[in-house]
Amino acid sequence: MKMIETLNENTIPIRKKPIVIAIAVCTISILISLFIHNYLRNKSQKFLLPRDSDIRIHYDPIGIKIVDKKPKKAPVEENIVEAEINLKAALELKRTGKYEKALKVFQHSLALSPNHPSILTEYGIFLELYRHDIIQADSFYFRALTYDPNYQRALTQRQRTANVVQGIDEERLRRLDEKRDLLSQVDTNSAAMKRATKEAYILHIYHSVGIEGNSMTLSETRSVLETRMAVSGRSVDEHNEVLGLDSAMKYVNASLVKNNYITLEDILEIHKRVLGHVDPIEGGIFRRTQVYVGNHIPPKPQEVQILMDTFVEWMNSKEASELHPIKLAAIAHYKLVHIHPFTDGNGRTSRLLMNTILMRFGFPPVVIQKQQRLQYYNYLQMANEGDIRPFIRFVAEATEKTLDLYLWATSELPYQVPLLAQAETIEAHSPTISSGLEDDLSGSGGDGDAIRL
């Protein structure tokens, strides 16, 4: 009996010891888990806040100084020494009046160090002197200040050019308003207007899918839209891209053009139709993975929802309503592309959203030609760097071309307007608006659903 008691006394502490240790370890683990959870939650909430600074751009920077934007730190470049040597050589050539050689050396210097404030500023000054291009020069001064807001030489130049450039931009917008008002006097039910709108409809689809890499020609795109029959030698996805954009454009015409506001559901519905024939699973659904677009890294997938909510709120705000329609449409296009909310179809959806806004204010839908793809992407990249004005000018130029096309097609002008459809290098034919009109007159036109936009 005593032996049993002795054993019990010796073994009980030995059994209790690991239990106490286990409880302590569990307690510490729970505390650590709670700490990590709170940390990650706070961190994710921090990044899920609407980061306006990421998508806030400066379309009217009359204040000269760059506001609401942290100075960018220019990356360390291996060729910076060589670039500065070339800059000195270019300035010397400029001083001696050898402008042609100076231009090439300036361009070489900028290629070596594209973010160098001194090179950007001196090249801008040269463009003003040699090419009298004050708009391009002002953009270079702006870029220089983006990387060094305290660079006095660039600041001095911008103080001189900003108001002048602003006046030029406003004059162009005023001219666009006049052309829009002139076009509004044309009877929308006239045969000429219907033919013009139908051709613009086909051109928009042809160029918009072409920007994304679709290889269909204009005549093939027209055939798919009018006959709904497959074209030999083209992939199923290329056919579906055309049909999807056609479906989205019909939805825009039927539902959104007359609305005073655009909701998040409207944007999702546009994308659902754009991508519906190619990838119905991803159509109308925000991306769930990180994507990369050239040098641009869009926001994380968990940030997309709140950024899109903020974007839609801005688009229907008083601040947005006070912008000129061209500015509003261009900025809305850029912001949506910057957020890049979808896995695919962001460009087509953004261009449709831009045209929806333009049509709400009486402008015809803009056709951005696929031949301008590189220029189009370059201007978007410049907007990523903080200056959206070149992209707004790009949209304004495309709008003016479209207005001129409509005015020429619906009136008896004594001259011909440069047409939207440029010659296709692969095919022998050259598609123009007249070819579309001849097709209609010969009886090969499509159904009435296509005669809008």
Task: Give a topology summary.
Blueprint lengths: L1 H47 L3 H4 L24 H16 L3 H14 L4 H14 L3 H14 L4 H33 L6 H21 L6 H10 L8 H21 L7 H13 L27 H12 L2 H4 L3 H15 L6 H15 L12 H12 L4 H21 L23 H9 L12
Helix pairs in contact: 3-4, 4-5, 5-6, 6-7, 7-17, 8-9, 8-17, 8-18, 10-11, 10-15, 11-15, 12-14, 14-15, 14-17, 16-17
Structural account:
One of its GO terms (cellular component) is membrane. The protein folds into two domains: 86 residues, Serine Threonine Protein Phosphatase 5, Tetratricopeptide repeat (Alpha Horseshoe); 265 residues, Fido-like domain (Fic-like fold), CATH 1.10.3290. 65% of the residues lie in helices and 0% in strands. 36% of the residues are buried.
Task: State the gist of this model.
This protein has about 450 residues and is an all-alpha fold. It has 18 helices and no strands. The longest helix is centred in the N-terminal third of the chain and has 47 residues, at about 1-50.
Summed up, the domain count is 2
Shape, principal axes of CA atoms: globular
Which blocks of ≥5 consecutive residues have pLDDT under 50? 1-12, 40-70, 419-453
CATH level 3 topology of the largest domain = Fic-like fold
Q: What's the Cα radius of gyration?
A: 29 Å
Number of strands: 0
What is the correct CATH architecture of the largest domain?
Answer: Orthogonal Bundle
CATH class of the largest domain: Mainly Alpha
The level of helicity is 55-70%
Biggest sheet layout: none
Beta content comes to under 5%
Class computed from helices, strands and strand pairing: mainly alpha
Task: Give the CA-CA distance, first to last residue.
Answer: 102 Å
CATH superfamily of the largest domain: Fido-like domain
Quote the average pLDDT. Answer: 80
Keywords: ATP-binding, Hydrolase, Membrane, Nucleotide-binding, Nucleotidyltransferase, Repeat, TPR repeat, Transferase, Transmembrane, Transmembrane helix
Family: Belongs to the fic family.
Protein name: Protein adenylyltransferase Fic
Domain Fido: 262-397
